[in-house]
Specification:
Layout: E1 7-14, H1 22-25, E2 72-74, H2 87-95, E3 99-102, H3 107-115, E4 119-122, H4 125-137, E5 142-146, E6 151-153, E7 160-162, H5 167-175, H6 179-184, H7 187-200
Parallel strand pairs: 1-2, 2-3, 3-4
Antiparallel strand pairs: 1-5, 5-6, 6-7
């Protein structure tokens, strides 16, 4: 079941790499695993480990002390490009990530994120770069993504910026409902429309 999202305040982990594709987010060989066990354990599996022994690389941002408490990631341009695998979003959500901040996202990844309650926030690349620099100097800085108020509050002097996503997707995320569950909330309206349509064209009900 999708977890409802209204407002999230968290520290932020900056993930390096332009064009970080879905295979980097979760390598394809892990997609056969039972998701009930959680895909979060496979998040960035190959790029967050050392080649020599497969142990976690302490230099990778998500492996640094306290990083596992962050629920917001700052990513670079075209994050989530490549294949359409929904497992990339599953890995992020199962790890506990609630929102992403970046200049742009792969189109299919972006839509998959919204379908699974992961909020992708687009900000200008210059602002993302400045925010990354700020986080380097002030790693304890926090960001608030307020989906209800449709805004993101950045630390320091970076101010408040609008969060713009599809209204239907926004309502579903706020309520913790996926597309099917959201459609079912309009069941009475759909039935009323169908009844009116048949009343206007009786042969449709035959």
């Amino acid at each position: 079941m999708m977890r409802a999202f209204t407002k999230e305040t968290s520290g932020v982990v900056a993930i390096p790499g332009v064009n970080c594709d879905t295979d980097q987010i979760i390598p394809g060989r892990f997609l056969k695993a039972d998701r009930a066990q959680g895909y979060g354990q496979f998040l960035f599996h190959d790029i967050r480990r050392r080649d020599a022994d497969g142990e976690l690389d302490p230099r990778f941002p998500l492996n640094k002390p306290g990083a596992d408490q962050a629920t917001i990631l700052l990513v670079e341009d075209n994050f989530g490009c490549g294949s359409s695998r929904e497992g990339a979003v599953y890995a992020l959500v199962d790890h506990g990530i609630r929102a992403l901040i970046g200049p742009s996202f792969g189109d299919i990844f972006y839509n998959n994120a919204l379908k699974n309650g992961l909020v992708p926030v687009r900000l200008p690349v210059e602002l993302c770069d400045a925010l990354e620099d700020h986080l380097t100097r002030f790693p304890e800085a926090q960001v608030t993504v307020d989906l209800e108020a449709e805004r993101i509050v950045l630390p320091g002097n970076f101010g408040t910026h609008p969060v713009q996503i599809d209204p239907f997707a926004r309502e579903g995320i706020l309520r913790g409902l996926d597309e099917i569950e959201m459609t079912l909330t309009y069941k009475e309206q759909i039935q009323a429309f169908e009844s009116a349509r048949i009343a206007s064209h009786p042969w449709l009900g035959r």
